[in-house]
Amino acid sequence: MLNKLLITGADGKLGSVCRSRLHGLATTIRLGAREDVGPAGANEEIMYCDLGDKDAVEAMVEGCDGIVHMGGQSIEAPWETIKQSNIDGVFNLYEAARKSSVTPRIFFASSNHAIGFHEQTTRLDANAQVRPDGLYGVSKVFGEALARLYFEKFGIETALVRIGSSFPEPKNHRMLATWLSYDDLISLIESVFTIPRLGCPIVYGASNNDASWWDNRETSFLGWKPKDNSETFRARIDAECTPPAKDEVSAVYQGGEFCGQGILEE
Amino acid sequence: MLNKLLITGADGKLGSVCRSRLHGLATTIRLGAREDVGPAGANEEIMYCDLGDKDAVEAMVEGCDGIVHMGGQSIEAPWETIKQSNIDGVFNLYEAARKSSVTPRIFFASSNHAIGFHEQTTRLDANAQVRPDGLYGVSKVFGEALARLYFEKFGIETALVRIGSSFPEPKNHRMLATWLSYDDLISLIESVFTIPRLGCPIVYGASNNDASWWDNRETSFLGWKPKDNSETFRARIDAECTPPAKDEVSAVYQGGEFCGQGILEE
Amino acid sequence: MLNKLLITGADGKLGSVCRSRLHGLATTIRLGAREDVGPAGANEEIMYCDLGDKDAVEAMVEGCDGIVHMGGQSIEAPWETIKQSNIDGVFNLYEAARKSSVTPRIFFASSNHAIGFHEQTTRLDANAQVRPDGLYGVSKVFGEALARLYFEKFGIETALVRIGSSFPEPKNHRMLATWLSYDDLISLIESVFTIPRLGCPIVYGASNNDASWWDNRETSFLGWKPKDNSETFRARIDAECTPPAKDEVSAVYQGGEFCGQGILEE
Amino acid sequence: MLNKLLITGADGKLGSVCRSRLHGLATTIRLGAREDVGPAGANEEIMYCDLGDKDAVEAMVEGCDGIVHMGGQSIEAPWETIKQSNIDGVFNLYEAARKSSVTPRIFFASSNHAIGFHEQTTRLDANAQVRPDGLYGVSKVFGEALARLYFEKFGIETALVRIGSSFPEPKNHRMLATWLSYDDLISLIESVFTIPRLGCPIVYGASNNDASWWDNRETSFLGWKPKDNSETFRARIDAECTPPAKDEVSAVYQGGEFCGQGILEE
Amino acid sequence: MLNKLLITGADGKLGSVCRSRLHGLATTIRLGAREDVGPAGANEEIMYCDLGDKDAVEAMVEGCDGIVHMGGQSIEAPWETIKQSNIDGVFNLYEAARKSSVTPRIFFASSNHAIGFHEQTTRLDANAQVRPDGLYGVSKVFGEALARLYFEKFGIETALVRIGSSFPEPKNHRMLATWLSYDDLISLIESVFTIPRLGCPIVYGASNNDASWWDNRETSFLGWKPKDNSETFRARIDAECTPPAKDEVSAVYQGGEFCGQGILEE
Amino acid sequence: MLNKLLITGADGKLGSVCRSRLHGLATTIRLGAREDVGPAGANEEIMYCDLGDKDAVEAMVEGCDGIVHMGGQSIEAPWETIKQSNIDGVFNLYEAARKSSVTPRIFFASSNHAIGFHEQTTRLDANAQVRPDGLYGVSKVFGEALARLYFEKFGIETALVRIGSSFPEPKNHRMLATWLSYDDLISLIESVFTIPRLGCPIVYGASNNDASWWDNRETSFLGWKPKDNSETFRARIDAECTPPAKDEVSAVYQGGEFCGQGILEE
After folding, report:
1. S-S: B214 plus which of B204, B231, C19, E80, CB 3.0-4.6 Å?
2. Where does the record place the NAD-dependent epimerase/dehydratase domain (chains A, B, C, D, E, F) (predicted)?
């Protein structure tokens, strides 16, 4: 059991899921957030922090032996936004981890958008080449590389989790392959923090969906077996959504609509 | 949902299974057959056609947006028979598809006999080298290659399904590995026609049997999860069939008895 | 069904499990042992034999059409001990098999310690390089190589089963990945002796554990599907055992504590 | 040294190169041709034969212990032409080989057009999936599959040589990668007929060009080392040919212009 | 032949080598530099520019159909330095390329330090996982990912060249494997700009050294054959340099001394 | 440069080649031999020793920082002979190395007979499965595994060199693929002892022959480039030797005649 687990982005969607579900993992949960997260609950402490602020990040990280990094920008945005949160912010996080009095283990929320330009008819494993589908995806490649550096050089272990689409339910046909249920997200985080030795593996964050593009065979040592299956929702999705035509970007590429976007300008 | 689904070989074993089970896939089912298939049912239309007759094939294919190609010769035969049905016939089918006013998606009933000379102790995936075990198997390699050409050049999508042994129940020890239940065949056809983008994948058509030689990992994007398991029938097979000795052709090669046949002459 | 199945090491832990569970496989069970195994039961015959005694081994093997080789040294020991049981003993066994009036099929209890110096974060399949973690592991590499020779040269089929940790229950965190339940061990032996053609495959002997380092994909032709899952015991293990730190040998290497031992001297 | 070597297509370009260069391989050279090949030279015999004529092919093949099969259609053509020469013709050839009093070894002139729809930026080896770029390419896939069948079933060895562009000199930018000099073609044929055991390998027929898409690593056992290099001709080609734009079919696909052709009709 | 080739970092070591050797590739050479590069020669134009200055970069890139990007930080440095040159600077470069009236092809000087934490006893090809050995290496991973994005989304072709050690002569034992002679660097650049279709390949920039860690097999389509061999210099290096002990960082990792550095602070 | 290099088997064929060619590698050459090796030359010392004599082996190994292990049995022999030299003898050697006051680096003369049952039409690299072709081959697999253990556990580096056929000239058709010239053997030994970090790689010991079954790509870090080519001798071999028929053991398997031998009895 961890002593102090930091959840960054605690004011975001997945951050709040983690807040409500991970109390069993640590004596204290520290919530890192930019926006208001309400009052601290039992065994919670709150630290407001901008990831671009190096000193604040160091203070937030100090003393934590686990970090679930959900913070930062989680969709495509203009370069300055991406850079501040996901380039500088991640650098600040790893520097803080290196300087902390306790070496933390880290769950890094990477994204399928790091490999979004692979076609949906292709199966990927941890050895797949990166093919980011936007500046957001490029920033995740950066974060994965930085984490790998800090693992090799300083022994900081990170799970590089390329999250698919983590929502209460899949919302469209593409998500039949990419959906990650909250239960499966939580069980993955638990695996990451309870296995004796983690290393720095790339893991694809998707539930046990019938339709699948990603192969976690290389990380079976984690013992993570997702239980949910998007197939449960297929009838509803068929009823509510028009499936894309075969040449639409959301049917061709794993990254879906992201692959069709241009570079966003301020 | 398809507008008009053509089932070729509707007078054959698998063709009639399809006829009775695929009505949910299309507004109209067109039945292509050489022999009598009885009266047309609701939403059915019947077209008698020899696959070697180019004009008849064009008429049969015209207007269909889906084709389940079960027609042609399905076991070893003399060259002229194979050639007419499975060489000329398949060429006629793809030419008709190319010329049709509607570009159809095709389920092509290929066969494990395209790879039948691999040993049973070897696991194959979609990248395995072909090793046909007879003229029939060679004709299936031809069909797969032709389908690939029409995909690359004209965008006609085909699922190249190397069907194992599709029967109500497995009949002998070899079929413990090769059996494809009718339910699983039908669910595979449904996956092929409902996925937004198919491409031109090679799929092995076998149920979820404990004993397995084939790996569909590369086509998990289809979301097809066969549910039946030949293991259910093992006790009965053990009771009814003498297992082959270790050096008999039906124990050595994936294609079984086909590998022991000579070239059939007229 | 076999005529006569020899179980070597019948006085050992796994040997006695086999004795009590394999009567359905053969008309007669012959028990090979060094220590007392009590009185012969129905359809049992007992032959006391030291594996280092060539003539005794020939007598023990003669007439058997199946051998489950559980005999020999099963943990690290000084060289002379290892050599007598697992080098000379295995040579004697295969020579006896070659000379026997009946060519037996063999289940060879190899060990995960043949590949014990691979890291736990690495997934292995049958093509993995050997990395023995002690003299015991080296002797298992020797046995696998000898079995392969006798397969290629004399057609003697052997299943080279790299057994993980076969106990009634997993005993520590490492065994969450390596545990092989007795039920799954027995069902594997049954598969080995009932499949028409075995060849000389490498199989990893582990149950269907959530945490897994080993991939039996290449031997799916066996039809062996382990049913038990160490996960059932995780809570108890968490309660009873302190998990190793990330840099302890039992967290780093697949062979666990064996990797930390020196060469034992007499 | 062979007793009697048949060169089919002796009236064609590569056939006549073979005629003039292979006399050292066999006591007698038999020339198979449709068109006039002039008078027979020393140790030559001539047999006029249409590959679609089964009896004529049997007569032509009878008694030969080596066959260089250069005959048949060598560029894209309407289906009936392709079928007669490269489908029926190849079937007739292998049937004749099977029935011959002498089992011949065969050099089968397959073509890069069997894999022409792979991109030029991809490196292929003998395990590459076929991607034919026309009916001609499909017929070569057929021929390779048929040869494989006759190897597995009847022990007839064939070298499946996917010839690139065999001309005195490369003619355009694409041929910098695909060029096979006549010297290298001849030395390949010599290797095929002098190695004690050939099997049925796929070989890419290209010279030792700096620019290369094909990897013959898997067939290094042949000992064939092409000596010529298209680079010698680069300056001339740069001077004489406009290089294609990056999105022209001759710059995108290995099959070059073939990939841009439609289906030819009679 | 290019119309206008931009060489960034023209004031640096490799930039000046390019300046003096690439005049044959383009009608005009535009030199991008921060420091003084002397007077413009024939067919040269000079643009002083800081890569962190977006508008200046756009002006520098405008109108160029080729870019050799040697600019930016080329060794480890504090984060702010790396970020300005190699993160922001590269983003500015690709944005400028996207906005330019002419779509340029780009030679991107990536680095072996993107994969520096692989061991020297491991052979890498284009599919190797990144393992950067410092912030510099991480920035090169970023640049490669960004280039890939602009290729997939906007069709901008880039050669991602992981340069080893480009000096007039190798300087120490590690460089026997990593050395890239100036001649071979120049011939690689020429290949990149003359091949009709480039795509976005990863290429290892090392000469034809006997000792080699890197495999360019996947990019043989480029037709680049380095001619120089570090072996020529082995005697001198043996005389002048003490080889590292087997456990020194410069003998263990491909990145050499970089792997032993800490994070540099301002 | 080494201080003291031990050459075992100095009374054997390859041992004496080493004796006469390796003086440049070490200040002192220690010759280990069973039979008379004549008087010690300059900088030579001689130690007569039976590899089965543990104490003698310890004395022989003590103080050496390099070992070329050419000693032991080098062709098929009865089990007791193999066991004494190549099982016990190799164990004694590695134990001596472990106990020595100086940790030596070792060149272990393994053999192609460790993989002799692979077919000649198959290309092997360092990851190939072992397929020994006799007790001799099995003993080499044992030696490789033991060396790997002592590398992982005690840091003793060994080059596992699967020597093909090392003679002044190739003697038959098989040796066109397996020949290792003395010059190339010596240059390989030099590479092994001069590279700063060796690890424990598997290397195939064959010259730069046109015909090749083995791929040393994985060990290109050694910088070993064999220079000789058996092709030089092809004409002579063709003149002097009848090539084997395609189904003779010397044409089928890499191990050649060894594959056809039985188990030798005393």
Report:
1. B204
2. 6-167
